Amino acid sequence: MREQVVLTGMVIKSAPAGEYDRRLVILTCERGKITAFARGARRPGSTLMASSAPFVFGTFSLYEGRDAYSLVSVEVQNYFREITENMEAACYGSYFLEFADYYGRENLEAVETLKLLYQSLRALLKSAIPNRLVRAVFELKLMEINGEYMEKPLGRLEDSTIYTWEYVLASPVEKLYTFTVTEKVLEEFTKCVAENKRRFVDKTFHSLDILDVLVYK
CA–CA distance from 156 to each of 73, 140, 153 (Å)? Predict the structure, then answer.
């Protein structure tokens, strides 16, 4: 009989599969990005229904198959329901999941990315930190984790902008969302992060298109 594996992770994609199942992409600490099927998760009353949604973070018990895993149960630590109940936060959060999916790889542990996702989603719920700043910090740190970043931003910039850039690169994930900046520094910083992204990331994010329409219109 196959043994169950227990992985810590977050659901970053969830889609219908067949009549009653869901196909999940889970970013895990131990095995990176995996695909799992939640059998019967769309049936009314299924114990897997709530835990098969995007943003769910917890401990996943699974059986490993040849091409995918089968989800048995989830010990949920955070549903992040507050994210899904706020349209702007949900747009940002969906973009974060899609960007994490872009860098996710099978059998490549994703401890730092998962910590970054978790802390960034929590930061979206803090009114003291502008979501634009949360987004820029998330983007830069995720690119840094994956080795795709410039040591210093380009151009004539405020000293505080350069310091913000260096702080994000040097700080552990737990210390990222402990500051705010002036509007001018935020504008410069977001532009610098966008330039870094143009240099290194060759992908169009559909969730970002929605975010730009709803939030940045």
Answer: 53, 19, 9
